[in-house]
């Protein structure tokens, strides 16, 4: 963009219309710059290109992994990106994650729900749209401050300062970043998946994550009772998402194929198979059951299939579901991942029971034997007890090295009494290095925490409540919240400004000139936060 040239170009347009005499070209350019994306579909196209570039950069250098945090409200996503720009100078390789878990728990009109795809389908696209609305407002807010600073420099006759600010405007980096959006198991049949994917893309999603569970049996990835579908069913839904991207012109949209097979021991149906060794036959080969010799061994209601050249009577539960062999889960994960990559998926998601780099690497190495460019989106889940997991991993490593561990009880390592120990310090280092190590050794392109802001909202509320309703009273807010906002330079301390009051005042002046009735005068209490 070029602020000066844009003003010159728009001056010509306005000058050609004699009745537009009250329209200021510079004001109109400012409004254009504050609204970089005219539609949310434009956002999807813009961010798909960014993700593809980031994926290529990771292929060339696995230290260039990407990260995100799950956000359950547009304001949370906005503040996250404002903080990222504040601390790191830019948004490169930082995304947002939209968690189906948090949509269910926090955004459903039914009230809080478990992560079982019971929430309204429209709630997902609504949150994507809301997140991008708030990110666009963050652009407008930051640029508005630059425009006001430019006006101050003009009033002061400071040409050098004006040049400096215009350069910042010309090189402005948007807060709008890719969102990896959770479509659960597709919310129904492939047509339902297509319709919902289309709605999500129109809301701005450039990347959709879909899992291989049965839609109407869907469970949280870290709970029991997960039921997977045959590959043909899952691939139909991957195709449905791809068609939605292509229909809307997002030709480089990204699909993340998630497998829950490591923790899923059940299937709802036996796969269709036409010949030995095809996908259906491979899926069925993992079924638990007993081989039989004759029809006399078939009881009323039994199902029998031909597998490995023999008759197999799969184990069927009272629920009607079929059970997989317990030793088949890793083989199923590998087959799921290879099949998804060979049939239209761009990235993989393997849901694991613990955050263990060696375990992830074991599976990814097997996948890469067939698909060398395989890359993972990995769930750094709050469902893991991170402290306990890494303390136990360090304990096990030290045990192999022959260290004296008599001071530690492996089963009780979460105890506060171990917090200041050498083992705890080493475990914290392992946690600190987990993302870089997993990206370097186990093919993780993107690290996300699914629902961190669910927990941070609860924690900060708990801390404020303890003090405010206790002996601290108003000091709990003054010291624990507002003073921290001021010291950390968090924009929300001027909440009127953050909500758009100054932007509205400037618009009023554009529209009405000196007659504008503005909120930001000398009696606005927000002025108490100037010069902090």
Automatic annotation (TrEMBL):
Superkingdom to which the source organism belongs: Bacteria
Cited SUPFAM superfamilies: Phosphoenolpyruvate/pyruvate domain (SSF51621)
Cofactor(s) listed in the protein's UniProt record: Mg(2+)
GO molecular-function terms, A-Z: isocitrate lyase activity; metal ion binding
Signal peptide positions (record): none
Record flagged with keyword Isomerase: no
Residues annotated as catalytic: 220
Pfam entry (one): ICL
Catalytic activity: D-threo-isocitrate = glyoxylate + succinate
Cofactor note: Can also use Mn(2+) ion.
Gene3D superfamilies: Phosphoenolpyruvate-binding domains (3.20.20.60)
GO biological process: carboxylic acid metabolic process
NCBIfam families (UniProt xref): PRK06498.1
Name of the molecule in the record: Isocitrate lyase
